[in-house]
Amino acid sequence: MTIKEVCSRFGISPDTLRYYERVGVIPEVHRTAGGIRDYTEEDIGWVETAACFRSAGMPIDLLVEYVRLYKEGSSTISARCELLKQARAHLLAEQQKCKEALKKMNYKISVYEKAVETGVLDWNNGACGCPCSAEQE
Amino acid sequence: MTIKEVCSRFGISPDTLRYYERVGVIPEVHRTAGGIRDYTEEDIGWVETAACFRSAGMPIDLLVEYVRLYKEGSSTISARCELLKQARAHLLAEQQKCKEALKKMNYKISVYEKAVETGVLDWNNGACGCPCSAEQE
DNA sequence: ATACTACCTGGAGTTCACTCAAAGTCAAGA
DNA sequence: TCTTGACTTTGAGTGAACTCCAGGTAGTAT
Asked: Is B103 on the interface with A (CB under 8 A)?
């Protein structure tokens, strides 16, 4: 599979894919005799994993370290397991932050929707624990 | 409340707080006669909101635009409402990406935990739809 | 054989969100 | 009053993650 096909499949630019390979977010990709990248299913699996974790905000370093350990072979299995658990903690923290932001956001939107109807913003902070006191008008 | 107290309350550096004010993520903060920032409850409300949304990955521009509209007064209420809905969509997308990454991560960890016990990595891709074919060893 | 397009590399440039430094001011304690 | 330490501004510097560019090669269509 060409780089272009992989790009359109995952919504990543060719520059980004080459960058990922260069810094080690994914292992070296298979090439044609002429030196052009020809992604195997295995390569694509790595790209999908990298794209998934990156889109969730996982830092590059962590993915690079994982690939480094992977290349070292089965002696690093437990190290990789620890790394993944650390990565999971990171993701759970991100998810929690999203949740909190969404809670706050939903409250703000509900107040604004009422205001769009009535023309008056009516914050009711104490009741919801949402710190919107700064926005009384 | 001094800048230091606000910082320790939200885990933000003084530089970051001043930066937020400078670029307009939060409105101008109240000052003492000597020109030193003295955060009111209202100011703190803005900081909390900014910190919450920023930690969830909301871009600075969006928050700046919201504050800009807020300062323009009640004529921008419906515009602000639209902006918040757009922001919510952004957060929901983030949350979804976290969820997908966690699903993949949990599968990988489960495989690795088994491998740490047995010493053998045993991917079972077809069964879970998880693209881990790149990591068979 | 000749275009033409997509790919290659190495390295420089960009964007975002801070973060730091320099030089000066404010405020409390000895 | 002097010192000390926290605050102020302006502007430059940093790190992460791309993104672009120049100059060259691969592969296909005519």
From this structure: no
Predicted TM-score of the model (pTM)? 0.90
Q: Distance between the two ends of chain A, CA-based, in angstroms?
A: 58
Fold of A3-72: Multidrug-efflux Transporter Regulator; Chain: A; Domain 2 (1.10.1660)
Give tens-digit pLDDT for B80-102. 999 999 999 999 999 999 999 99
- Domains of chain B, by residue range, sit at 3-72
Contact between A49 and B134 (Cβ < 8 Å): yes
Query: Using CB atoms and an 8 Å cut-off, which of residues 42-101 of chain B contact chain A?
Result: 42-46, 48-49, 52-53, 55-58, 70, 73-74, 77-78, 80-81, 84-85, 87-88, 91-92, 94-95, 97-101
Q: For residues B45 and B65, what is the distance between their CA atoms, to the nearest angstrom?
A: 17
pLDDT by residue (tens digit) across A35-79?
Answer: 999 999 999 999 999 999 999 999 999 999 999 999 998 899 999
